[in-house]
Design brief:
single chain; 358 residues; mainly alpha; two-stranded antiparallel sheet; two-stranded parallel sheet; 3% strand; globular; disordered C terminus
């Protein structure tokens, strides 16, 4: 099989709809659903078998965590937006990935596979992170499965060991470099950055004897079980950076979800929501890339036009004419005003300044 550098192919709503009826879409969603099913009723700290391939991917992520530790944030106390040192980390990681991937994948596939992995750390240009970047990490894992590096027997370890380690890396990057949330979903989002830990985490809690969806309001349960269940770990993270009010105030969607009767209901809703709010959103999916491993023949190859945000804004002839996007569509939300990191706001001290959507 030949390999190629993945490229963007989705620009218009019509191309997004074409993708949603493709085998590439079915492969990607099917893989997420299989990962989800594999961890139903399983704790992070349970003993599970890890294959040599799983351990190699974990070692790669550990290397990146150590790399982050060697690149401290630069003095940037006057700004609560992304720290420029992230660019240094990003470039060093991109430089090291070909060598780090050699023990994991065949050399010819490194360019294709590494493209997804480096994109999963966030945007180098905007120093932000969101669900689209998270989706790139799933694409990286799916490539490893298609290459036979990871197998069906590795699904549980892929979530509870590899994905959890990726979350460790991303929380480190978010805290260290104050990555901005990609987009301005505001309080109706689950988390400033992630979606999948809520899906996988709700799967973990299905049929739990004592922990119910409403248990997210119990500080003792969060403290005791946040290391064992991703969903509760996410609640602990949110509480740590948005500690001036209740979930009802700063995370009303999570508060609403806590009224669900069962974790099975929550998990089913998360899968539907991921399809609608991530896979069906043009501002997210226009950045998704396709190569030979995750192959989509539809749409049209898009050349990057670096305008600072990574979108392809078609300029009007008259400079006074408002930019339009994708043949008449409105400019994506993520091209509006930057949204400061809540982590940065929390780090500002006890006299925390209010930020939009906080």
């Amino acid at each position: 099989m030949s390999y190629t550098k993945p490229q963007k192919r989705i620009v218009t709503k019509e191309e997004l709809e074409e993708f949603q009826h493709s085998t590439a879409y079915e492969d990607f969603i099917g893989y997420i659903e299989r990962l989800n099913d594999s961890v139903k009723g399983c704790r992070i700290d349970s003993e599970i078998k890890t294959s040599p391939s799983v351990n190699k991917v974990i070692d790669l992520l550990e290397h990146l965590i150590k790399l982050r530790a060697r690149i401290p944030p630069v003095e940037n106390s006057l700004s609560r937006f992304g720290n420029p040192a992230f660019v240094t980390f990003y470039d060093k990681a991109a430089e090291n990935l070909p060598e780090l991937l050699k023990p994991i994948v065949e050399e010819d596939a490194i360019l294709e596979v590494s493209t997804y992995l480096i994109e999963s750390f966030g945007s180098r240009r905007r120093i932000d992170y969101g669900t689209g970047h998270e989706a790139n990490f799933i694409a990286f894992l799916l490539c490893l499965e298609k290459l036979g590096v990871l197998t069906a027997e590795d699904l549980k370890a892929t979530v509870l060991r590899i994905f959890v380690k990726y979350m460790d890396l991303m929380r480190d990057l978010q805290f260290s470099y104050w990555l901005e949330p990609a987009g301005s979903h505001g309080v109706w989002g689950l988390d400033d950055y992630h979606f999948l830990p809520f899906m996988f985490g709700s799967a973990q809690l299905i049929d739990h004897k004592y922990i119910r969806p409403k248990s997210i309001h119990d500080p003792d349960i969060i403290e005791q079980f946040s290391k064992s269940y991703m969903y509760l770990g996410c609640i602990a993270f949110i509480n740590s950076v948005k500690n001036t009010a209740t979930l009802r105030w700063h995370s009303p969607m999570l508060d609403d979800i806590s009224a669900a009767k069962s974790w099975a209901k929550v998990n089913g809703g998360m899968i539907k929501m991921y399809k609608a709010e991530v896979m069906n959103k043009l501002p997210i999916m226009q950045h998704f890339m396709f190569g030979n491993l995750i192959h989509f023949e539809g749409g049209s190859v898009v050349e990057d036009n670096d305008d600072g945000c990574g979108h392809h804004h078609h300029q009007g002839v008259d400079e006074d004419v408002k930019d339009v996007y994708a043949m008449g569509q409105e400019r994506p939300d993520c091209c509006g005003i930057p949204i400061p990191s809540a982590i940065a706001a929390a780090a500002a001290g006890q006299q925390r300044r209010p930020i939009p959507f906080d």
